[in-house]
Structures are given as structure tokens and as C-alpha cells.
Automatic annotation (TrEMBL):
It comes from the Eukaryota. This is Copine-8. Residues 21-148, 157-280 form the C2 domain. Residues 1-20 are annotated as: Disordered. It comes from Sclerurus mexicanus. One of its GO terms (molecular function) is metal ion binding. The gene is Cpne8_0. The keyword Repeat applies. Probable calcium-dependent phospholipid-binding protein that may play a role in calcium-mediated intracellular processes. The keyword Nucleotidyltransferase does not apply.
């Protein structure tokens, strides 16, 4: 639909009546993002010096945003701004609200048109150019403000576009709530009931998802439950008017809990706090249907409601924290001779090997958060020219004083170059590259930088004790380690380093926080040959823990995000007219 204003008193399209953005509908559901979005960001678009396509006045611009499906790369229209009459420097009022995941690459395309008639068909209007970027690029720019040239009309300067990302507040709030109940139905033959509450949020399709269970209060019909904390996202997906259903049960040891009754509410109702509005009748529909005189099965009362705002990963990124990305590649002989197709380092002229694929999948996402796009790339376990000495931390570009490569493409180039010059050898020692990054991380502990080390290996590790010690020491530093295991080996040692099951320790000292994430590459090889989707899944799984690991470091150290640089203020402009 074209961006026509809705009639007065009616909600704008894509918004629920509460004035809050509607969540993505089932049709937009993608295989990858079935988790609750990490957060929502609001994109604001402005242009400067657009092309003038009108003879007697200036262009009447509109901006159309497209997103790209991960699998088939198809561009789909996401939304349109309003049209602003007669200007080459529009500041569009209508925003785009998007789900943001750190661990996914979301490609965006902004198209600009000069609107000449009321037709919603874009081909009927003059094309003014376009801009391509990723959502990560916008968020990762200084102050989350990206300025880029508009391209697409050969031989013409099409002006620039400025896109600013703002995190939506409702996504990072948590609520602390406490409930009690009175005169609940007695369900137990001996003694009273043992009640507990179950909270469920409603989904777009009318189904319900459980989001919280209280503890059981034994032997009472008037329980007071302990206060509990839940994120607003989990409670209602940030939609204040979405139905929240609360079920009341009587706990039974054998798990066949008896249903006492239920009631519905919403975040907006609960946010009124303790009041006559927040006393709910617990209704058992079966009983209500059978008994004429049925009133209710008791009442539940909200005792307190407190909103707490959490600082988020994006607060730090916006405040200027840089993520430094280092790559370390396993050049040990167990990988096989690079000139043989069976080798994990096989230099296939037609497609990337497993090392190349893993490197690109993870690197392309992280690079959006690193302003200089210069990445140190190291190798370990090879004999180096000219004298054949074995090294466990050598620069892939051959320059130990400056191991930095420009962009992920630069890292790939250096990797292929090294394969031609070094001899695969051994043993497989991880500790030297971990200590290499730890030395840098130890020098900036003020929260202005965070380090991510990606180790790609065939998993046969020789220095387990030293590696554990390095990880335990590194867990006090602003760094995370991602290990991707390639090839068919048993990765038990890697699973142990991951520390998800048992926190890693060395000489009786435990790691202060979990900083290692391991995934086996073979779990992501797509039998259908669709590497794009399988690599997106790999990146998602290895990067999903980083924002939480990052926040755990900042929390423990008491580091608050810096304020974002002052926002850009556009000049005052002419009144806007809608078409």
C-alpha cells in the first residue's frame, strides 16, 4: 500500500491500536529467527542533495526499504515512508521498525523515488537512486548513524542518505512483579491446595507460549508468591496490549496438577500497579458452565509492579565500544596436504574450503562492529620459511610487526598465500594465540574495546593444560573465544573447553565467566548444497552468545556505556504534505 495517512481515529497500518508497532506476522517468519528478537531498532531516514526530476519545482521524494531473504537472496519490500513535497533534503517522519539480531546479517536496500501521481505502483514514478547496506553497518557506525552516497543512476551524483538506528526502549525493560491470591478452590482431599501460577503470552496466531511459572506455596488457599523478574520481551514481546493469560494450578507430586482457574490481562493493565483494576477473578470455565450459582474460584491480586531498564549491548556499541576481531587458523599436518582434495585446507579453485567458509560466515558479521576493518590474522602449527622453524603464532600476511589484514577479503587472501608458503606441521597448541589476544585485551580494560578470537581447527589439541590455564586467565579480560571444529575428528576436548556443561578450571581456579563457544562445522554442512543458509546458521550459533558474554564482563567490572555522540540535528524545514 502507498503511504496514505489513515483516517483520523484509525491506527496507522502495521500498528496495533495501542500505538505500538505490530510484531512481524507469521508470513515474515524466517527459519533463522525463531528466537525472540534480541531487540527492536527504529530506523530514521534523511537525504541530502537528491536529484531534481521535476521541471517547475523540486522532487517529491519517498523512501522504500527492502530486506533480503537469506536463502534465495530475493528482495522483499519492508515498508515505505511518507512522501514529502518539493524538497531535495527530506527528513522522513515515518520510521522503519526492525528486529535486530547481533548474530545475523540483515541486508538492506533503500530505494528513492520522486512521486508524480497517486499510483502505488513504483514503476510509475521517477527513480532517484538507491543505497545498499546491512543493519549491522548502521548500528555499528559511530553513534549508530550511517551516511552513504546514493547510487544507481550512471553518470549522475544522486546525493547522500543518512540512516540512524535507535533501540526501542520497551525491549530492554524488565518488570519485577508480585502476586497473592485469596479463597482459591480447595482441590486436595486432605489439607488445602498447593497453588502456583503459570504465565503465558499470546502469539500472532492466537496460540499461547509459556513465559513464567511461580514457585509452589504449600497448603494454603491464600498464597503470597515471591516477587519475580521477567523481561517485557518475554512477557508480551514488547506489545503492551497483547493478551497475557495466567493459569492457577494446584500442585500434585505426580505431576497431574489440578487446574483451579484462569484470567487474562495485559502489560498495560498490569502497569497500573496495585489498584482495584489489578484484582482478578479466577474463572474455571467448566465449573462456570455447569453451576448456575458459580461466582469464581478465588481472586488473584497484583501486589507490586516495578519497571527496571537494563543496559543493552547496543548501548555500548552506540557509546563507541569497538569489537576487535582476530582470526587464528590451524596449520597442523593432521589437516592433510593442501594440494589434495581430501585435505581440509584443499585449495579448490571453484569453492571455499571449510576453513574459508567458517572464516567468511563469522567474519562478515563481526566486521560491521570494527571501525577500521583491520583484522590480525594468525596461524599456528606450521614450519615457516626460510629456516623451517615451527611457530604457534605467525602472521598470515608474513609480517609479524603488522599482522593486520584489510577486511575479511584481506584475511582470506593472506590465508591462501600462507598455504602456498608454509609447511603444515605440529603439534596443535592453542595457548600461544589465546595469550597473544589476551595481551592486547589486558591493556584496555576500560570497556572501550572488546576482543573476539576465532580459532578454526581440526580439533586435535596437544596443549590442553596450558590452553585451560590461558582461558581461565582470559575470562577476567574483555574477550571471547569462538572455536569452529572442521573435519571428522572427535571434538570431546573442544566440548570441554566450551564450558557450557562444566565451567572450565585450571589448577583449582575456575573461569570467572564462560567465554568459549565451540561448534563443529560438520553440523552445518547442508546436504542440499545450500551453503548460504547453513553458513548463516553457523554464524548465528557461534555469535549468539557474544552479546551476553560481553555484558557479563561489563557488569562484573561495573562499566557503564558511554553516552552516544550528540545526535545529528537536521535543519528546520517546510511543512510536510501527504499524498
Amino acid at each position: 500500500v502507498f503511504a496514505l495517512e489513515p483516517p483520523a481515529g484509525q491506527p496507522a497500518p502495521g500498528r496495533s491500536s495501542g500505538g505500538l508497532p505490530k510484531m512481524a506476522s507469521v508470513g515474515d517468519f524466517s527459519v533463522l529467527s525463531s528466537s525472540i528478537p534480541a531487540t527492536k531498532v527504529e530506523l530514521s531516514v534523511s537525504c541530502r542533495n537528491l536529484l531534481d526530476r521535476d521541471t517547475f519545482s523540486k522532487s517529491d521524494p519517498i523512501c522504500v526499504l527492502y530486506t533480503q531473504a537469506i536463502g534465495n537472496k530475493e528482495w522483499r519490500e519492508f515498508g515505505r515512508t511518507e512522501v514529502i513535497d518539493n524538497t531535495l533534503n527530506p527528513d522522513f517522519v515515518r520510521k522503519f521498525i526492525m528486529d535486530y539480531f547481533f548474530e545475523e546479517r540483515e541486508n538492506l536496500r533503500f530505494d528513492f523515488y520522486d512521486v508524480d501521481s497517486k499510483s502505488p505502483n513504483l514503476s510509475k514514478h521517477d527513480f532517484l537512486g538507491q543505497m545498499f547496506c546491512t543493519l549491522g553497518e548502521i548500528v555499528g557506525s559511530q553513534g549508530s548513524r550511517l551516511e552513504k552516497s546514493i547510487v544507481g543512476i550512471p553518470g549522475k551524483k544522486c546525493g547522500t542518505v543518512i540512516v540512524t538506528a535507535e533501540e526501542l526502549g520497551c525491549c530492554r525493560d524488565s518488570v519485577l512483579m508480585q502476586f497473592c491470591a485469596n479463597k482459591l478452590d480447595k482441590k486436595d482431599f486432605f489439607g488445602k491446595s498447593d497453588p502456583f501460577l503459570v504465565f503465558l503470552r499470546s502469539n500472532e496466531d492466537g496460540s499461547f507460549t509459556i513465559c513464567h511459572k511461580t514457585e509452589v506455596v504449600k497448603n494454603t488457599l491464600n498464597p503470597v508468591w515471591q516477587a519475580f523478574k521477567i523481561s517485557v520481551r518475554a512477557l508480551c514481546n514488547g506489545d503492551y496490549d497483547r493478551t497475557i493469560k495466567v493459569e492457577v494450578y494446584d500442585w500434585d507430586r505426580d505431576g497431574s496438577h489440578d487446574f483451579i482457574g484462569e484470567f487474562t490481562t495485559s502489560y498495560r493493565e498490569l502497569s497500573r500497579g496495585q489498584s482495584q483494576f489489578n484484582v482478578y477473578e479466577v474463572i474455571n470455565p467448566k465449573k462456570k458452565g455447569k453451576k448456575k450459582k458459580y461466582v469464581n474460584s478465588g481472586t488473584v491480586t497484583l501486589l507490586s509492579f516495578l519497571i527496571e531498564t537494563e543496559v543493552s549491548f547496543l548501548d555500548y556499541i552506540k557509546g563507541g565500544t569497538q569489537i576487535n576481531f582476530t582470526v587464528a587458523i590451524d596449520f597442523t599436518a593432521s589437516n592433510g596436504n593442501p594440494s589434495q582434495p581430501t585435505s581440509l585446507h584443499y585449495m579448490n579453485p571453484y569453492q571455499l574450503n571449510a576453513y574459508g567458509m567458517a572464516l567468511k560466515a563469522v567474519g562478515e558479521i563481526i566486521q560491521d562492529y570494527d571501525s577500521d576493518k583491520m583484522f590480525p590474522a594468525l596461524g599456528f602449527g606450521a614450519r615457516l620459511p626460510p629456516d623451517g622453524r615451527v611457530s604457534h603464532e605467525f602472521a598470515l600476511n608474513g609480517n609479524p610487526q603488522n599482522p593486520y589484514c584489510h577486511g575479511i577479503d584481506g584475511v582470506m587472501e593472506a590465508y591462501y598465500r600462507s598455504l602456498k608458503s608454509v609447511q603444515l606441521y605440529g603439534p596443535t597448541n592453542f595457548a600461544p594465540v589465546i595469550n597473544h589476544v589476551a595481551r592486547y585485551a589486558a591493556s584496555v580494560k576500560d570497556g572501550s574495546q572488546y576482543f573476539v578470537l576465532l580459532i578454526i581447527t581440526d580439533g586435535v589439541i596437544s596443549d590442553m593444560a596450558q590452553t585451560k590455564e590461558s582461558i581461565v586467565n582470559a575470562s577476567k579480560l574483555p574477550m571471547s573465544i569462538i572455536i569452529v571444529g572442521v573435519g571428522p575428528a572427535e571434538f570431546d576436548a573442544m566440548e570441554e573447553l566450551d564450558g557450557d556443561v562444566v565451567r572450565i578450571s585450571s589448577r583449582g581456579k575456575f573461569a570467572e565467566r564462560d567465554i568459549v563457544q565451540f561448534v563443529p562445522f560438520r553440523d552445518y554442512i547442508d546436504r542440499s548444497g545450500n551453503h548460504v543458509l547453513s553458513m548463516a546458521r553457523l554464524a548465528k550459533d557461534v555469535l549468539a552468545e557474544i552479546p551476553e558474554q560481553f555484558l557479563s564482563y561489563m557488569r562484573v567490572r561495573g562499566i557503564k556505556p558511554l553516552p552516544a555522540p550528540p545526535p545529528y540535528t537536521p535543519p528546520i524545514h517546510v511543512l510536510q504534505t501527504q499524498i
